[in-house]
Amino acid sequence: MSLLLQVEMIVLAVLLMFFIVRMVNRHSFSVKKALPWLLIGLILIFISIFPTSVAYVAHKIGFGFTINFLLFSALVFLFFLEISDTTHSAQREQEIKTLIQEVSLLKKELHERDKDGK
After folding, report:
1. How far apart are CA 47 and CA 27, in angstroms?
2. Whole-prediction pTM value?
3. Residue 18 domain-assigned (yes or no)
4. Which domain holds residue 31?
5. What tens digit of pLDDT does each residue of 8-36 get?
6. Total structural domains in the chain?
7. Is 97 within the bounds of a domain?
8. For residues 99 and 96, what is the distance between their CA atoms, to the nearest angstrom?
9. What is the pLDDT of residues 36-65, one digit of tens each?
10. Membrane-spanning residues where (predicted)?
11. Which among 48, 68, 46, 63 has a CA at the least distance from the CA of 1?
12. Please, what is the Cα angle at 101 between 115 and 105, to 5 degrees?
């Protein structure tokens, strides 16, 4: 890996981490959701500083090319993020459904009280 590419990767990783932290500070991104992306930024910095270590791990695992290992790792990472987001979304849907039911029951009770009071 050329020195220019290493510097570019470090700069992009630092910019990514800065952007994520800025979004957390503006409350448009939760800390829980930011942690995996900050971890990716740190991994990118590590890869740019020690590119041979990634190649070593890739070949030890059995990948013919380092890029195949990196693409597979990115795919697995995105897969787990999507599963996590889907799980959280399903939980929120259930919470919303429960809240709607509770509000409907309260409205019905208020309507019945008004009807009995008149």
Report:
1. 30
2. 0.72
3. yes
4. 3-88
5. 999 999 999 999 999 999 988 888 888 99
6. 1
7. no
8. 5
9. 999 999 999 999 999 899 999 999 999 999
10. 6-25, 37-57, 63-83
11. 48
12. 20
